[in-house]
Amino acid sequence: MDILTIFPHHRPMPSTLRILVLASIALAGCKKDAEDDSASDSSNPPTSTAGPETETFGETEPDLSTGSTDPDMTETTGTGSTSGDTTDADTGTTDETTDDTSSEPMCNNGIVEGDEECDDMMVSFDGPCIPGCLENVCGDGHQYIGVEVCDEGEQNGVYGSQCGFDCTEETAEFCGDGVLQEEFEVCEKDDIHEDFNVKCVGCMWANFRIVFVTSVTFDGAMNTDGWGNGSNSGLDRADYHCQKIATDKGFPGTFRAWLSDNNGMDDSSAAARIGGAEMEYRMPNGGLVATSWSALLENGPEDAIEYTEEGEELEQLPARVWSNTSPTGESLGESDCSGWADNTVLKNGSFGLTTKPQWTDAESHYVCSYKFHLYCFQEG
């Protein structure tokens, strides 16, 4: 077909351009003929009945309609962690990875978690939440300021602790709390002993020793009506009487008689048996005898020893007291009723008077059948 027939109204083309157009039309016709020939060849069926031709390169493209992918073509991207094993494509080695997105509880982060009892981000030893995120409770040894007055842990409520079981001082039991705990205390701080006029120090009576004159009288053999004497004799029998009287009155310790014989034994003198202590000597309700043992031996008694174990003054004063003992506690070497074992009128015994000047040595003696009193001293 002539080009002028196709474009009848167009201006004539230059010869060169005309040749190019004709060549393009010819090539298009050849291609059409080739397609027609291919369609008529039954040995080469078409690969597709819809859409453009698909070129294949030995791999299958993913099916976009189902979202499935070829496992060989899978690639994982992103920042998230992946659990399981991963294989290095270049080396063929496998690395084991762990997917651990959980974290251990952290005390003081403001979140109660795990075994925590509390977490207020203000953990302290004196607040509601103590280190370890434990609640601050009475008895844990940590004082909760503003709630607990005190907290001494396991010592709460124990005698001597100033903190009670309920973490208050009101229920505490200790020396000086104003309440006498008889299991642990003899007296309460600043109390005055009603019998011996001594102060209470450390919930015990201030150190002192007891002195009294017996309300009972004894003959020169240290006998008295109705009293059993056992196998004792002489000074032992006198000491026995002092101890019996003191024990019956509830006085503590060991008591000896202020009495000496002339036997020359180690225990013949009153001072040797009593021993003495450097503390006060007091009578029951009778005031101060001496501020110490050495003061007694040097100066004699502050007050005449005329109060009995009952705390009562003798009815007849001055009264005679068997003694044969010097102011320094040694034997006078005077008459002693044959070692305080004879109560007949044939023997004599030395005595003192319940007055300050002659309290132990009256410079006289009397027959041993008479009954006189004894001084009794608490052992040092």
Structure description:
Strands 8-14-7-9-10 form a five-stranded mixed sheet. The model is unreliable at 1-19, 25-89 and 91-101 (pLDDT under 50). A hairpin with a 3-residue loop joins β9 and β10. It has 380 residues and is α+β, with helices and mostly antiparallel strands. It has six helices and 14 strands. The longest helix has 25 residues, at 15-39.
Record the SSE blueprint.
Layout: H1 3-6, H2 15-39, E1 84-87, E2 94-97, E3 129-130, E4 134-135, E5 200-201, E6 204-205, E7 208-213, H3 234-249, E8 255-257, H4 270-274, E9 280-283, E10 287-290, H5 293-299, E11 320-322, H6 337-340, E12 348-353, E13 365-367, E14 375-378
Parallel strand pairs: 7-9
Antiparallel strand pairs: 1-2, 3-4, 5-6, 7-14, 8-14, 9-10, 11-12, 12-13
